[in-house]
Amino acid sequence: MSNLEFIKPNWKDGVAETIQYRTTIFTTRSGREQRSAERMAPRRTVEFTALLRSSNLRALRNHLHDRTEVADRIVDPARGPTFLAAAASSGATTFLVPDLPWWLTVGRTIMVAPASFATVTAIAPSGGNQQITIGTALAAAAPVGSKVMPTILGDLADTLSAAHVTDDVAEVDIRFDVLPGTPFSFETSPLFTLFDGLRVFEEKPNWAQPPQVQYVSPREQMEYGRGVKESYLPVAFNTQITQHTFLGRSYAKISRILRLFMDCKGRRGEFWSMDWTYPLNSVGGIASGTDTLFVDGPLPLTSLVNTAIAIRRRSDLSITYKKISAIEVTTEDAPGDFGSDYGDHFDSGFRPSVRMKITVDSLFDTSFTLEDIDAIYWMSKARFATDAMTVRWFNDDVAQLVAQVMTLETIEDA
């Protein structure tokens, strides 16, 4: 194993971190799925551009030429550093840091700049700082403020490309596959809300890159190339695949999405997904002790299993979740409906062409006036549409992530 401390990103194009699971999915003719996770721990890959010059560029060439071992160790480019609170001398086995980042744990191999690799053996408070004990003495003195960084063990790609800027300066495209089984950790952050036994994916995407939606209705055809043909719809529900982009998110928010993805083991697990492209327009308030609300239509009247609504209150942005029991077309007036106060004198041209009455599975324990309702969103049971998720880090605390979400069946169990 070689320590390649000089391989680090120049942040020209950021760092791409990919987490990948493997799921086997058996889909019946009716569209129902049976999913099995083939990986309990994900594969992790980091990709970035490293600007190498002079001795560092020669060191990489020599390493590739004389390579006898597959595994290498580099500084983890997708995790932020901490810093020495006091200078540490060469040969020291302890040093101080002002805080304890989430990745700094006993058993973790770290690097103390400029190039001292060691494994953490103990952590203890010391006069407002944290004293870190390592199993290998520092190879060189480190002044106050020197970086302390996590490292990862894995393999460089079989092929590396270098674009030379001058004869001894080059930009090298690095791909590093972290060794399978290496513990993968991320910042602890609040879990998503739990509703009806599943988490709610409630992180709102950016509209600078609007969601992209695919509607899938599989059909079968009997087509012999001549004469008539016959089509069938063996799947009794529509599947919606939505691609959400999350731009400029902090490490904490990215960690929440990654945690949900990892807990689901990629495509294996299920969650409730808020449909940000399907807002419902309330036409009145909601009375406490009732189980109905009124919205503009049209809405689907069948296949309502695994569907719900999320009602966000304007005053505190709290969200109330309710499963949908039934939807029907109605001419009833909603509580607080503007039009109901005027009866026949109300200008019907301002009324929606269709009014829908939604019945939910439990009574509302609090009331909403029309002004209280900030938004109502449709929700469906869903899973991730891919087993891979890539985070592009612009620095060690700001990132972009794209997540594809696929709705599940909305029909009664057979």
How are the SSEs ordered, and which strands pair?
Blueprint: E1 2-3, E2 15-20, E3 23-27, E4 33-37, E5 43-53, H1 54-65, E6 72-75, E7 82-83, E8 94-97, E9 109-112, E10 116-126, E11 129-134, E12 147-156, E13 161-166, E14 169-178, E15 194-195, E16 198-201, E17 212-216, E18 220-222, E19 230-232, E20 239-250, H2 251-263, E21 271-280, E22 292-296, E23 307-313, E24 319-329, E25 355-360, E26 373-384, E27 388-395, E28 398-407
Parallel strand pairs: 1-6, 16-21
Antiparallel strand pairs: 2-5, 2-27, 3-4, 5-14, 6-12, 7-12, 8-11, 9-10, 9-12, 10-11, 12-14, 13-14, 15-16, 17-20, 18-19, 20-28, 21-26, 22-25, 23-24, 23-26, 24-25, 26-28, 27-28
Short description:
By secondary structure, this protein is mostly beta strands. The chain contains two helices and 28 strands.
Distance between the termini: 56 Å
Secondary-structure element order, as H and E? EEEEEHEEEEEEEEEEEEEEEHEEEEEEEE
Q: What's the quaternary structure here?
A: single chain
Record field, number of beta strands: 28
Helix content: under 10%
Structural class designation: mainly beta
Query: Could you tell me the radius of gyration in angstroms?
Result: 28 Å
Main beta-sheet annotation:
24 strands, mixed
pLDDT averaged residue by residue: 88
Strand content: 35-45%
**Domains counted in the coordinates: how many?**
2
The general outline is elongated
Q: Low-confidence parts, pLDDT < 50 over ≥5 residues? A: 338-352
Q: Total number of helical segments?
A: 2
